[in-house]
Amino acid sequence: MARALIDDEPSVGDLHFPRVLEVIADPIRLSIVAQLASAEADISCGNFDLPIKASTATHHFTALRQAGVIHQYYVGTSRMNVLREADLEEAFPGFLPAVIAGARSDRQQQQQQQQQQQQQ
């Protein structure tokens, strides 16, 4: 299938660190980044585990794309998502791995707290 491109994402040279920080600071967007980092393949918008409606999710995907955190493209009618890992590493060395590690740590802590609450 042909891959149609969405072309409103910045080039590596145009990535703006404060904008990337602002976008990733949102918990929903951080969840999207963490899910993409854990995925073995690109993920379509409808296959994320998010506690929001599709129309709201679209806003979050757009913000991530326009900040340069993700790349999106179409396969048929599905909008696919992939982290721009190499681009972010080139622009901000070590940033994305640190964010992903922090997100995983937070998620593990939340799961442990939920388990403790269930045991009480």
Name some characteristics of this structure.
single chain, 55% helix, 5 helices, Arc Repressor Mutant, subunit A, alpha+beta, four-stranded antiparallel β-sheet, 120 residues
Protein described:
By secondary structure, the chain is an alpha+beta fold. The chain has a single domain (3-119), classed as Winged helix-like DNA-binding domain superfamily/Winged helix DNA-binding domain (Arc Repressor Mutant, subunit A). It is 55% helix and 14% strand. The chain has helices at residues 17-24, 27-38, 54-67, 85-91, 95-119; strands spanning 3-5, 43-44, 70-75, 78-83. The protein has a four-stranded antiparallel sheet. A hairpin with a 2-residue loop joins strand 3 and strand 4. The radius of gyration is 15 Å and the shape is globular. The mean pLDDT is 91.
CATH 4th-level superfamily: Winged helix-like DNA-binding domain superfamily/Winged helix DNA-binding domain
Examine the coordinates and then state which fold CATH places here, giving the name of the CATH topology.
Arc Repressor Mutant, subunit A
What's the CATH class label?
Answer: Mainly Alpha
**What is the residue-mean pLDDT, rounded to a whole number?**
91
The low-pLDDT segments are none
Write the H/E string, N to C. EHHEHEEHH
Shape: globular
Helix content bin: 55-70%
What's the number of extended β-strand segments?
A: 4
Outline the secondary-structure elements:
Elements lengths: L2 E3 L11 H8 L2 H12 L4 E2 L9 H14 L2 E6 L2 E6 L1 H7 L3 H25 L1
Antiparallel strand pairs: 1-3, 2-4, 3-4
Give the structure's gist in a few sentences:
The chain is an alpha+beta fold and 120 residues long.
